[in-house]
Amino acid sequence: MNWTLEQFDPTQREFIEDPYPYYRKLREEDPVHYYAPFGSWWLTRYKDVSMVLSDHTLFMKQPPTQLDEVPSPLQPDLQDLNEIPESMLFLDPPDHTRLRSLVTKAFTPRVVENLRPRIEEIVRSTIHSAKSISNGKFDLMTEIAFPVPAIVIAEMLGVPIEDRDTFKGWSARIIKGLDGTQPPGVLMDAAKADLELANYFSKLIEQRRRNKQNDLLSALITTEEEGRKLTVGEIISTCGLLLVAGHETTTNLIGNGIRALILHPDQLKLLREHQEFMPMAIEELLRFESPVQRTARFASKEMKIGDKTIGKGAGVITLLAAANRDPSVFANPENLDITRKENPHVGFGKGIHYCLGAPLARLEAPIVIRMVLEAFPDLKLGEGKAQWNSNTVIRGLKSLPVEFN
Ligand code: HEM
Fold first, then answer.
1. Which residue, of 91, 213, 322, 345, has the fewest CB within 10 Å?
2. What is the pTM of this model?
């Protein structure tokens, strides 16, 4: 690699296409790297990432001091957003604990497992339409990886399916806002999308209050913890989080995963011959091509990580995807090995913010991958280079052209 640590720049096309050599160099040469344009510390070693995620009192979601003197970055027409509380993903205890336990009540393993037949039905119908419209060629992202998780989370929440394209648009704009490497216009647009989504959910909540249904939205309205219900603002931010998380991440586990399998024919063959390896394969794909590449915390006090002093309030970026390829934890980390037994990857995070939707992703992704492999016994990559989204937090493909006979 012909770049120096000072030149590290995650906005470059080369990084977006293949960030792993960059992570490796950072981990080997400067595992606690100060990235000046962000003013934050980028951690690439498994032990550091794991330590930060596990200690929610030292490393918090909110900066330790309220930055009241900083004017709101939002334009006047977006100020309403300040009224909507943060979702649990951006909160610390005790608010995080209260919100998470309320949502967990509505998002039980039984609710998730009961979705199995419906998910299979959705996948069957997307595969059917991919086969019928195509001439042996289709875009796996458009036809299968995008629609399946979107339909599942929409049905689960109780969002009308006719609005699917609208909320897919909001979701795509909002996740761009999670990526601090995006230009200010994109971040502003993400804030606008947040507001539009909030307005949409506030109307839907009104309807559900009058007319309860058998869906997550109605459950969030009625569920209580120690006599306290969620406020309307909390329901809005929770629905927004679930909708966005439910859309973008599983889609990319499916897309990144199927691409990685096709690029590793020995592993694909093994999986076709041994369906019982599927759960291990899913964990390995989460490790190898992590859909969520990084997350962030703030240091609650001055401390040392490795030989670096991290100031109070400094941003700490935990590169999950780099930790997932740390050779001190994973043997031959650059190899895709669907039979890997020891696989303590941090693809779903760790600690109190560990992914709430992990059981749903672990249900959906194997169903999709199994049914795609069965439906297309000779699936190949189509022509053209894979186009990655420019988002450096959520790694995923814009399109994945595939062919079959
Ligand atoms: C392959 C799919 C998925 C991946 C890789 C993934 C990854 C993650 C990660 C890394 C975090 C922790 C972030 C942090 O520590 O800052 C997280 C949190 C979360 N995820 Fe997922 N996720 C996936 C699917 C889903 C789905 C399907 C849902 C819901 C429908 C979901 C809902 C959430 C929620 C609500 C949180 C916040 C939990 C908290 O703050 O306590 N995720 N996810």
1. 213
2. 0.93
